[in-house]
Specification:
elongated, D-Amino Acid Oxidase, Chain A, domain 2, FAD/NAD(P)-binding domain, binds flavin-adenine dinucleotide, about 25% helix, nine-stranded mixed β-sheet, 8 helices, 2 domains, 20 strands, alpha+beta
Amino acid sequence: MDTLFDLIIVGLGSHGSNCFSHFSGKMKVLGIEQYVSPHTKGSHNGETRIVREMGYSGEYVDIARRSLELWQKLQDSTSEQIYVNSGGILFGHATDSQFRDYTQFNNPNLQQLKHQEVESRFPIKTSKEQQFYFDKSAGFVRPEIAISIFINQGIQKGGKVINNCRYINHIYKDDEIHVYTDLGVFRSKKLILSLGMGIKRLQNTYQLDVAIYKQQVVFFKTDNKNFDKLPVFMSENNSQEVYGFPRVNGEVKVGLHHFGPSLEHPDLYDQTKSEEGTVNQIRQFLVKYMPELKDAAVSRVETCVYTSTRDHNFTIDFDPRSKNTIILSACSGHGFKFCIVMGEILEEMFNTGVQKYKSFQLSRFQKPKF
Ligand SMILES: Cc1cc2nc3c(=O)[nH]c(=O)nc-3n(C[C@H](O)[C@H](O)[C@H](O)COP(=O)(O)OP(=O)(O)OC[C@H]3O[C@@H](n4cnc5c(N)ncnc54)[C@H](O)[C@@H]3O)c2cc1C
């Protein structure tokens, strides 16, 4: 292809697709994707993702708020169900570290609930050693639908997409970036690499500190309408973190939030192999906290991937060789909610040449050279 693009975005998953929508129409954009997005071979499958402000602090607070505004705006613009403001409930022991961290932040929406109120409003069984907090601004979004909308918006604004095309590397030549793929070389002035777990392949080039963790979520089939009013929930119990969603299409989805064991390379990701014990651990959680669901049949188990940094913050920064390339990745198991704000963040970065969010900078992991 002879065209010189203004911007090439590699990876049209969660974050890349939002950038594709955001920049298309403002400049000449090409999106390159190794599969056809959305798909089930990365980090965005599984039909629901929690969106919330609860639990975030520091540099995340403003972007969490902005993302909720933008999800609402997207929902208002379409008849498809993208964003559901179900509220969110956070529960755990005051002694559990993550739970303690989550509840100490000054979130004006976070309200402590009495045990009686929890049991009267939701199908949750309380125990006296647990504390319960409710965030009325939390809810969930539909990742596959959102990604399809972003890609379609980008195409309608003039963006081009090449699917089934794999990025290999890129080089800088005069003022151009030459992007090498298995379908040939594409030229651009700017580049965004939004590869999800594929970023692990660039670990040595960028001295990245990322790990890949296979995750499985379990769908329970139920006719019980009480689970329609369940808010999204996050629970910590003796360091075991469990999260889940209200009933959607007759199923309640529950997952374990954990880091490990990690995969050495993205090519070792095997979706067919079941993770030991996930269903049993979740079943034990249900027996204790959601007994109305304890005997529900498992309708399916879905596999997905966290790409995580050591400090669980994102990696969004310039290629040290050029302010025209941004690496956008490692969203550490909690990144989907923020994809809707990534176009705005990256536009500011390209315009100013500065990554103002210190928590996302590449340099935080680079070892001093002496
Ligand atoms: C089980 C599970 C539950 C989660 N729950 C939540 C939640 O409740 N709330 C939340 O906010 N977040 C959640 N997350 C995290 C969130 O889903 C991820 O942070 C987010 O999807 C990461 O987006 P991404 O764009 O980096 O990756 P992806 O969406 O995987 O996109 C990367 C894209 O790059 C493409 N690609 C890779 N390499 C190449 C290449 N060489 N050439 C071309 N294309 C390439 C891939 O095919 C893919 O389409 C969860 C994740 C998992 C796995």
